[in-house]
Design goal:
2 helices; about 80 residues; about 20% helix
Length: about 80
């Protein structure tokens, strides 16, 4: 965890590690660039989780989110808007 503007923030690599600890190889994370121009970038992230119930039934959950970062809006985004 790190502090950003005085608030605790769990970095993405930590979040992904926690997903793999809980679900092992049953989780996947896919990212897609939805929009990319001189001012901003929009990225879509999709997390899929497969689970097996006690009676052998496979369940599947999908979670999707979007993020928009403005290039050059901060020192970090000047060099790392895609990663951010």
């Amino acid at each position: 965890m790190i502090k950003i503007h005085g608030k605790e923030y769990m970095m993405v690599n930590e979040r992904i590690s926690k997903l793999h600890e809980k679900y092992g190889n049953s989780v996947s994370v896919e990212t897609e660039i939805v929009s990319d121009d001189e001012q901003s970038i929009i990225i879509k992230a999709t997390i899929s989780v497969r689970n097996f119930t006690d009676d052998g039934v496979i369940t599947h959950q999908t979670f999707t989110g979007h993020a928009q970062e403005y290039k050059n809006s901060t020192q970090i985004n000047t060099t790392s808007a895609y990663e951010n």
